Amino acid sequence: MKQKILVVEDEKNISRFLELELKHEQFEVTVAYDGRAGLELAMNEKFDCILLDVMLPELNGIEVCRRIRKHSDVPVLLLTARDEVMDRVAGLDAGADDYIVKPFAIEELLARIRSILRRVGQVKVSEQLQVRELIIDTDAYEVTFEGRKLELTRTEYDLLKLLIENLNRVCTRELILEMVWGFDNEVETNVVDVYIRHLRSKLQTMGAPYIETVRGVGYVVRG
Which domains does the chain show, CATH number per domain? Predict the structure, then answer.
């Protein structure tokens, strides 16, 4: 059964773009264009995740989120054009699970949705991730290639796991920083390049699938 996502966004071009991209990812999508309509849908239908713009007509996204939280623990991801600390704090205090600042890359949004759904147990996390002969055992935190164990640091493991979870999708340096190091960690983007070099070297030593560089964007592992 397809997972259902509610998109509450008053900018028609953005809402249409999100609808098309999410449907392409096999989600079932419902769209509302103002806060009151979005709240009504959220209260009367079952959704697996809600993408909620902050600046909405009728009722702003913070208030919509606050009212949803009185009745439901459905995951809420805020879409906001504001990058001020107090705006982020207000959204999280209202009960949002995460937020993303406009303009955003669709790859990052999709990664955040997958992360939220995993956290609430709505996406079954496989015990193993595999690309050809490379296998990640997510329970044992172990990586093997053709049966041989690959010795990785925890950061290298998390980095490889992220790339393989997003197989054939380019992960930007910014996304890697946030998902591996955490968005509150003040780490320069060149740290990503350093760890990619280390990881790539270990993989190539064993003949494992290598990590491709997408110039000016980020990195990808292709299946």
Answer: 4-119 (3.40.50.2300), 128-220 (1.10.10.10)
Give the DSSP H or E segment for 220: strand 218-220
What distance in Å separates the CA atoms of residue 136 and residue 131, rounded to the nearest whole number?
9
Q: Distance (Å, rounded) from C-alpha 36 to C-alpha 113?
A: 23
Q: Give pLDDT tens digits for 175-219.
A: 898 888 875 556 677 889 999 999 999 998 888 778 999 998 999
DSSP 156-213: HHHHHHHHHHTTTSPEEHHHHIIIII-TTS---THHHHHHHHHHHHHHHHHTPPPPEE
From the number of C-beta atoms within 10 Å of its C-beta (0-12, 13-18, 19+), residue 38 rates as buried
In b/e form, how buried is each residue of 91-113, taking b as 16+ CB within 10 angstroms? Answer: beebbbbbbbeeeebebbbbbbb
| Residue-level length of the chain | 223
pTM confidence score: 0.58
